[in-house]
Amino acid sequence: MPRTAASTLSSSSSSSTPSSPSPSSSPIPRIADRDRRRTSASTILRSVLEHGPVARSTIARLTGLSPASVTDYCSRFTELGLIREATTPRPSGGVGRPHVPVDLDESRFIVGGVHVAVPYTTVALLDLRGRVVAERELKHSGATDPYGPYGVLARAADGLAALLDEVPGSRPLGVGFAAGGWVDRDSGTVVEHPLLGWREVPVREVLGAQTGLPVHVDGHARALVNAERLFGQARGSASVLHLFVGNVVDAAFATNDEVHHGPRSQAGSITHLPVPGGTEPCDCGRVGCLQAELSERTLCRRARDAGVIEGANPLHVVAAAAAGDREAVRLLVERAGAVGRAARLLLDVLNPETVVVTEMGVVHREDCLAALRAGVGDERAAAVVPTGFPHSVLAVAGGSVALDVLYRDPLAASPEAI
């Protein structure tokens, strides 16, 4: 059966199992060769992502790979439908035929994304550059949806199908899923999400059955750190910390393009990190834990107590601040400063080159960004930047789980084409 790019995002179980070695050979060189091929393929496709349209000779110069190797991989990517040759050749700058640059074939393939937050699920379609093609919010019926996780996932699958109908001619490579809480990437399971009431939900299995597509699952802070590395603020950074502050507060750390997951993907849980000067009681029995202190639920409750808003939508606090409400401004600026102090603690431990913060006030207001950086401290402030996806962060989160798989191992293939 012919190879297609859709097989790229299939389960890697068949492609990752080495063939049985002959009695006279060891599997170790074969494994090393496979890892080298995967790394080379990833490096070349990411060069096209970052620099395209780009000549093959330029890719060879940028990556240090041989021109023959670059040409071979580009031919395979063209066969898969991931890249295409540009229509207008560029002068070679010397004797010989003009260079024919290559670029991503952006019109052919897309990925689906599902992000489950507390109040709603975001479903989206992304192109190969991580740009949102279409998205939709599916509101939940309460803090813990009465339909349960399986109802939420069924409606997400229906939402993706509806979006695909709106983008005829594009072929889905797979689906990425992201959520807060404890999400195990390897098993494709939401192990625990207390705010949603989810425990041991087999997301990969359920969404895969409902969509008929390969499904990849991860926590949203890790999903977003990958998005920032591939398409956003952390391109080119040797190490990056992402801090997500919403209803759920968590973090992710990547170094040399590898995101740290820890056993069963428990890394990044900072729910109970103490906030200096915090006063908010936490379910754990202590006071001033990070999530209890900084969550959007807490922000909205404080805003209601101050008469700023009546409901539970944190964007109404931002709107009130934009309209000149001083109390709303104070609440947002103080929250951003506390986020900065939390980021400073993580900076002291991890010392990343870049810190990306996804927090509502920081995204929308310069005074909040200034308060964040002040909380971090002048000597580290320049390393701290807001998310590169201010208007589509949740839509990007889900799809980036699938796109990370593509760019990490673009030639991975299953025996069956989708």
UniProtKB/TrEMBL annotation:
User: Which Gene3D superfamilies does its entry note?
Assistant: 3.30.420.40, Winged helix-like DNA-binding domain superfamily/Winged helix DNA-binding domain
A Pfam family per the record: ROK
InterPro entries recorded for this chain? ATPase_NBD, ROK, WH-like_DNA-bd_sf, WH_DNA-bd_sf
Q: Where is this region: Disordered?
A: 1-39
UniProt protein name: ROK family protein
Q: Where is the composition biased (Low complexity)?
A: 7-19
User: What family does the database annotate?
Assistant: Belongs to the ROK (NagC/XylR) family.
List the top taxonomic levels of the source.
Bacteria, Bacillati, Actinomycetota, Actinomycetes, Kitasatosporales
Signal peptide (from-to)? none
